Amino acid sequence: MDRIRIQGGKPLAGAIPISGAKNAALPLMAACLLSDKALRLSNMPHVADIASMASLLAQCGVDVHMDGDAATGCPQGSVLTLCARQVTSTEAPYDLVRKMRASVLVLGPLLARCGEARVSLPGGCAIGTRPIDLHLKALAHMGAEITLDAGYVTARAPKGGLVGARFAFPSVSVGATENALMAAVLAKGETVLANAAREPEIGDLARCLAAMGARIDGIGTDTLTVHGVESLNAASHAVIPDRIEAGTYAIAAAITDGDLTLQGVKRELVAALCEHLEGAGVAVTETPAGLRVHRHNGALVGIDVMTEPFPGFPTDLQAQMMTLLTVAKGAAMVTETIFENRFMHVPELCRMGANINIHGASAMVRGVPQLRGAPVMATDLRASVSLVLAGLAAQGETTISRVYHLDRGYERLEEKLQACGARIERLKG
Ligand code: EPZ
Known about the structure:
alpha/beta; 4-stranded mixed beta sheet
């Protein structure tokens, strides 16, 4: 298994191109199942999760074509054309869903287009139990008959297809909102999804569906109203920039006392992070090239952070922000409200000299002057990248094992960091 080796202590400087958002791209890919016409997605990130979703779609009979775009200078793999002319399988098997939970996003589209779908239950994962009950409840409100058997969910639409309905999510779920939204675009009549998630990735999905001919009101708000249509057309759509990748590199600038510009990123995409960074003594300015991030006057100060659904502070940046706070002056309280087990990075950070105590859903971080390099182990995508950040700031050498987690969601991580002066390399094996 590959490892990553970092010689820390070097301030990063330069500009980092931000890739398309993995978490926007995955539901966009699933949306191709709603139409028998081609969906062309550009600005696709080249990461392992996209390849997993492509395999799942291919298995459903989707024609998957990966390309570059010479006209706009897009590299090979950044343009994906998906055509579900004929869906030949309506099943998402355990092996694929287990590897990548976002596979459950094919449930809504398959059910809406084919009238049935059989999707493996994902099971637990490193950061929490992560049930899919809200996905199923929303679909049941549209008339789906849902049965659970042998670890699989089978969903069947009524004879005439799904029927529009009003559904208020009892709590906010990104994936359940996406599944329900995709199902609703082909349901008969009007669907109202209240207390819907407002993450930018949902806005991106809704805009792509609209380009395919769906009729959706309230995009960007917590109430989505969908007027069902008979069928969807061909469309082209560019994936939004990855706000979590951008946020990760913003924190890399701050923790190494460097100066980075995150190309193509606007402040509004990462507004909650910017406010928190500013509170911690980091300057964030919008420039024509992107968002510029550097420390105000050298010192970082501790601030409290609580994760919340968008527009609050994203759970996917909690581990990275906590890493920054390990070297800030004073104490900071980090509270995780989205997932029940998302502090797996804490023991690893402590091995590098951090002072962190967990109390239930909160972690008390007392800043230390310096982290020290150590061998550490990645446990999930964001925990892994938080260890990269720690390694970049630490004195001495850090090696991170199990980096396949990183490959699921960060495109060309070492290359992007090396270009800004980081001493980071991948050790094959
Ligand atoms: C999406 O996961 C993201 N994944 C996650 O990113 C992200 O952490 C999460 O949203 C929250 O922002 C993708 O977009 C592919 P949820 P999702 O449904 O949709 C509970 C990363 O690192 N819940 O909003 O699975 C759930 O257990 C990943 O890139 C139910 O109880 O998240 C959690 O506590 C990790 N029942 C909370 O809601 C349900 O049916 C929010 O989960 C669904 C969710």
